[in-house]
């Protein structure tokens, strides 16, 4: 299935609009599932999963990026979703002086995250911690970003970043421990 979507994305980049119409329902559903997971902890539904996905897709499809694969597409979607969520959280925090910040779960999407699957983190604090992690270990930060914001599986992350699945698992363990320590302080 990933190969089919990759071929459709390449065909779309070459100008075949029908290819995007065929690929989009599958891509959209994956992004929507991820958005539902990301917004599960939100107390007030001012940003819903559909709006998040639509905004991310508008930002992505408006430029001339040639997506290497489905995993690459989802990786870029993670960047846009993170940006949208952070912008939204900042706007809400400014409006309410921090009273209604968005919350996400750090471990809800990653495989093997049973120990901290229930920990709820402030989105702005997570964004700041991911930025600090990127200064320390950029790849681990990117891996965690793909997991947290796009809901990508380890094999998809491995394909997008160009590393092995065991390396993704190690990076995720390191990033999770590093983020938990940073956010507990």
From TrEMBL:
Keywords: Sigma factor, Transcription, Transcription regulation. GO terms for molecular function: sigma factor activity. Gene3D superfamilies: Winged helix-like DNA-binding domain superfamily/Winged helix DNA-binding domain. Coiled coil: none annotated. The keyword Transcription applies. Residues 3-183 form the RNA polymerase sigma-70 ECF-like HTH domain. One of its GO terms (biological process) is DNA-templated transcription initiation. This is RNA polymerase sigma factor (TIGR02999 family). It comes from Dokdonella fugitiva.
């Amino acid at each position: 299935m990933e190969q089919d979507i990759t071929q459709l994305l390449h065909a779309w980049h070459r100008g075949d609009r029908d290819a995007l119409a065929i690929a989009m329902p599958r891509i959209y559903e994956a992004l929507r599932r991820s958005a539902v997971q990301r917004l599960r902890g939100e107390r007030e539904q001012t940003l819903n999963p559909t709006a998040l996905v639509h905004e991310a897709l508008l930002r992505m499809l408006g430029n001339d990026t040639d997506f290497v694969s489905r995993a690459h597409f989802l990786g870029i979607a993670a960047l846009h979703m993170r940006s949208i969520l952070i912008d939204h959280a900042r706007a809400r925090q400014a409006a309410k002086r921090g009273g209604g910040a968005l919350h996400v779960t750090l471990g809800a999407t990653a495989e093997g995250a049973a120990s901290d699957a229930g920990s709820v983190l402030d989105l702005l604090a997570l964004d700041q911690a991911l930025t600090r992690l990127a200064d320390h270990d950029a790849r681990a930060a990117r891996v965690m970003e793909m997991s947290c914001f796009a809901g990508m599986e380890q094999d998809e992350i491995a394909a997008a970043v160009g590393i092995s699945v065991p390396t993704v698992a190690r990076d995720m363990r390191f990033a999770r421990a590093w983020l938990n320590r940073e956010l507990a302080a």
